[in-house]
Amino acid sequence: MEWYGVRSLFHFGINSKGINVFEERVVVFRANSFEEAHRKAELEAEAYAKDGEFELHQEQLAYKQDGEPLVDGYEVWSELYEADMSLNDFYRERYEKFTYHPEN
Q1: Is residue 102 part of a domain?
Q2: Within a domain: residue 104?
């Protein structure tokens, strides 16, 4: 069995300013294939969404680990992006532009 990190995206709620809050979440699963990892991830994400009353986006992305045991410092997700901008600009656009800041 291999380890897979599966990313799911949720509509987490709406803040007091009427702005949507989203959660990008990566959970690891042990499975024999991408298909099995996705099935496990779908069940887990559906339960998570139901418990939190969140809306689950239909697309999930999976990343197969290299087969080594999970240990402290082990990479569980890696995704490559392409953009015609500096590293700092990319960071601001991808991570800071839409960062959620709880109100209290």
Answers
A1: no
A2: no
Residue 80 falls inside a structural domain:
yes
Beta bridge partners of 11: 22, 55
Model confidence pLDDT, tens digit, residues 50-60: 999 999 999 99
Q: Outline where DSSP puts E strands in the chain.
A: 2-14, 20-31, 55-56, 61-64
- Other CB atoms within a 10 A radius of the CB of residue 58 amount to 7
Q: In this structure, is the dihedral angle defined by the CA atoms of residues 18, 11, 101 and 79, taken in order, positive or negative?
A: negative
What is the DSSP code string of 75-104? ---------SS-HHHHHIIIIITT------
The pLDDT tens digits for 73-95 are 777 877 777 778 888 898 888 88
Residue 96 has pLDDT above 90, yes or no: no
Looking at the 3D structure of the chain, how many domains does it have? 1
CA distance 86 to 100: 23
Separation between Cα atoms, residue 24 and residue 26, nearest integer Å: 7
